[in-house]
Amino acid sequence: MPAISRGEVSYITGAASGIGRALASMLVGQGGLVVIADLNGEAAAGYAAELNEKAGTVVAISVKADTTVWEDQLAGFQQATTAFKRIDYVFANAGIAEHPWLPPFNPETAAERPLVKPDLATASINLTGQLYTASLAFQTFERQDIGPEGFRGKLILTASVFGYFPSRAMPLYAASKAGIINFMRSAAQYYADKHITVNAISPNLVDTPIAPDVLFVPFRERKLLSDLQLVLDQFGKVLGESTLNGQALSISQENVWVHPADTYMLEKNGPACDLISVEIFKLFGDRTN
Ligand SMILES: NC(=O)c1ccc[n+]([C@@H]2O[C@H](COP(=O)([O-])OP(=O)(O)OC[C@H]3O[C@@H](n4cnc5c(N)ncnc54)[C@H](O)[C@@H]3O)[C@@H](O)[C@H]2O)c1
């Protein structure tokens, strides 16, 4: 069963490779139009041309955009709305694997080394970049009518199981993905009555070019990889007429589940948390309750 209606438009960041690329292919296969946005402009253009040639008509355009650069992302969304008039789905998907933020821990040589500024590339791409995409999604949806399925638009963020589980080797990746998960849950509450849904797809390790092939070898041997098709199926569950909102659809090997929000001590915290929203809205002049 197709998840989307014919002619619906998807904007996908990081769509020249891996999960985003497979997602674009799935959506075009269902009669959709796609914007292939990627830092690698050549690969994005090549992939859009390939999709168009296969379809025999224009089903894809490409955008060269670094998601960490606001101007790039703004230009990408403007290019997309000029070409396709409307964007039904935005997939904030571009991301990288952990890029070490500090030199390896070594007390023996530490005193001889200068204190260094951390490399925050992982957080910049996986958190800030996705937030730029999200901000453009919401502002685009706000400016378009409610579609036949009852929505102005849907935002889907690619998170990870490391949005909930700590990782001693990937602190910035885990921090970014946890940030995306709680951003998703918070934004979903805000947009719930505005005909906009916000969800996240959170896979464990999937065999893609995100890391050198050698990294995947022991996972293949131990059958610890997650199936790409199962990941695509989870994206499908939040599209079209689906009313799912604020959910983290998770995948690990052959297991799929909706990861619950943390409710520990919420009963005690609830009244203060609710009142904070009311008072903050007053300060910001937002008319939302
Ligand atoms: N592969 C996995 O195991 C896995 C697991 C969980 C989550 N994810 C997440 O899925 C998403 C996609 O990963 P993938 O596995 O398909 O990786 P991938 O490397 O195959 O594809 C990522 C794409 O994003 C692009 N990209 C990177 N930085 C960018 C930037 N600053 N601006 C624009 N484009 C940029 C790359 O050029 C590439 O085409 C990421 O957010 C990743 O964290 C991946």
Automatic annotation (TrEMBL):
<dbReference type="GO" id="GO:0005737">
    <property type="term" value="C:cytoplasm"/>
</dbReference>
<dbReference type="InterPro" id="IPR020904">
    <property type="entry name" value="Sc_DH/Rdtase_CS"/>
</dbReference>
<comment type="similarity">
    <text>Belongs to the short-chain dehydrogenases/reductases (SDR) family.</text>
</comment>
<protein>
    <submittedName>
        <fullName>NAD-P-binding protein</fullName>
    </submittedName>
</protein>
<dbReference type="GO" id="GO:0016616">
    <property type="term" value="F:oxidoreductase activity, acting on the CH-OH group of donors, NAD or NADP as acceptor"/>
</dbReference>
<dbReference type="Pfam" id="PF00106">
    <property type="entry name" value="adh_short"/>
</dbReference>
<keyword id="KW-0560">Oxidoreductase</keyword>
<dbReference type="InterPro" id="IPR002347">
    <property type="entry name" value="SDR_fam"/>
</dbReference>
<keyword id="KW-0521">NADP</keyword>
<dbReference type="InterPro" id="IPR036291">
    <property type="entry name" value="NAD(P)-bd_dom_sf"/>
</dbReference>
